[in-house]
Write a structure and sequence with these properties.
By secondary structure, the chain is of the alpha/beta class. Helix content is about 40%, strand content about 15%. The chain contains six helices and six strands; from the N terminus they run E-H-E-H-H-E-H-E-H-E-E-H. Strands 1, 2, 3, 4, 5 and 6 form a six-stranded parallel β-sheet that branches. Strand 1, helix 1 and strand 2 form a beta-alpha-beta unit. Helix 1 packs across helix 6. The longest helix is centred in the last third of the chain and has 20 residues. The structure holds flavin mononucleotide (FMN).
Length: about 180
């Protein structure tokens, strides 16, 4: 199984990137790749000049090759971060659309509410892409700064159990493709 992990945070010590790695671990046997969203800002003039930047072509090829996608996003001012929206805008400029039908699990970690609101805005942002997003209760890890141990694994068994269940559902969807 090819898994593509997409973190909405570019920060080296991002808790969402840690959550992504933990999700991949709990997914079980797979070949994971982590997307690099450090892309130029979408600009129609740039697109007219060079077409899709190489980094976007790489990202879209990774999406196409993925059996399943996991997106972990922080919440910035009650929304997904600009880096994630910018990536989606670039992705949308390709033909065929690489995200169509892809099984996607979304999650977040952040402050007191775990960035749960950002997940609703991510679902909204993904709507035009016709992905196969897993539905159900949001998986949001509150107080991300203290939610992981020194091995970057989730401290609370409750979190690990919920994420394991979500990853089992993602595997089932990936196998159905
Ligand atoms: C610009 C900015 C806006 C933020 N807005 C929110 C917010 O609306 N709600 C929230 O729960 N946390 C908010 N936070 C806190 C982030 O969710 C928190 O720092 C998170 O851990 C960042 O994710 P990362 O560790 O993956 O980089 C904000 C942080 C930044 C930098």
């Amino acid at each position: 199984m090819n898994i593509l992990g997409i973190s909405g945070s570019l920060r080296k010590f991002s808790r969402n990137t840690a959550l992504l790695r933990e999700a991949v671990r709990l997914f079980g046997p797979s070949t994971p790749i982590y997307a690099d969203l450090n892309l130029p800002l979408y600009n129609g003039d740039l697109e007219d000049r060079i077409g899709l930047p190489d980094a976007v072509k790489t990202l879209n090829a990774q999406i196409l090759a993925a059996d399943a996608i996991i997106i972990a996003t922080p919440e910035y001012n009650k929304m997904i971060p600009g880096v994630l929206k910018n990536a989606l805008d670039w992705i949308s400029r390709d033909n065929p659309q690489p995200l169509v039908g892809k099984p996607v699990a979304i999650m977040s970690t952040g402050g007191r509410f775990g960035g749960e609101v950002s997940q609703f805005t991510l679902r909204h942002a993904l709507a035009p892409f016709n992905t196969n997003i897993l539905q159900g209760a949001a998986f949001a890890v509150a107080n991300g700064a203290s939610a992981f141990d020194e091995n970057e694994q989730l401290v609370l068994p409750l979190h690990a159990a919920a994420l394991t269940a979500l990853m089992a559902r993602l595997r089932t969807e990936a196998q159905r493709q």
